[in-house]
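I have been asked to look over a protein record a colleague put together. Alongside the sequence sits a line of tokens, each denoting a local backbone shape. Please read both lines and tell me whether the tokens look consistent with the sequence. I do not need a full report, just your reasoning and any doubts. I have pasted the whole thing underneath without changing anything.
>
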Amino acid sequence: MALDTSAPVLVAGGGGFIGGALAAELLKRGFSDVRVADVKPVDRWYQVHDAADNRVLDLSEKADAYEAAEGRQYIFNLAADMGGMGFIENNKAACMLSVLPTTFMLMAARDQGAERLFYASSACVYPGERQDSPEIVALREAEAYPADPEDGYGWEKLFGERMARHFSEDYALKSRIARYHNVYGPYGTWDGGREKAPAAICRKVADAVLSGTGRIEIWGDGQQTRSFMYIDDCVEGTLRLTASDVEEPLNIGSSELVTINQLVDIVEGFEGVTLERDYKLDAPQGVRGRNSDNALIQEKLGWEPSIPLREGMRKTYDWIKQQMLEKRGAGVSA
């Protein structure tokens, strides 16, 4: 089926990186009634869209979740307290508390008569033992069980998946679940401690160039492997999955695997520099290897993320460097 552009939509957590991009795409595609809800003040939202019904609501509070969901036919739930590995390894309790917006949004969707709810899960649900080598075998959806997810954040996401599944089984609500793999792109977090590896590396390379230090700090030994998905692919996959009849969780991620060192190589290439690398072996670095197996999404949706890493990183680097230059021009330390 195709999503009805006249249907009232809610983007929960729409003040965040992915939520802001999703709201922008919904408006671009002609959705006429888009509500965006987020706990942050509007001036801290990653993107603000004047054409949307923008509301500051704490979705970990039942009343606010019900207000957000009122009259909505489609609900995209991206509300969660999260960040890069440096954040989730040191804020496990805060990550677990995302169970509150997850729970209340499902209850509100059921009680307010929503037709479909999309739930943003994560590759962090996969067992650590399947990700303990850089030579990772790409993760298949069925391998989430027996469960041993990332402590804190991963457990909350896996629990959220189960709740969404049971709400579909027990009520009329159709839930759709995506396991996102390392989303990056412009308008994302690039400093402050919550940034993920692509943004952090862009910032560090730009800083080394702008300051003339010629050095970069890398968390870990640089041999850990990842795949990284550009934001446009993430949004496209989200909309395709939500419109589909697929009831099981699907990976939405790139299958283009690189080491962190190779990611640094790519960004250095944009500036034509080779930096001295200082490896911080005691820094949070997560699993040794993670990649997305896309066989199931190809089978179910006839599609998979395809934007090349170099292309997406070029756009991301240019945007982050511009943010840094603007900060410096304003006399703010980047």
Summary: The chain has two domains: 9-184+230-252, 197-226+257-301+308-329.
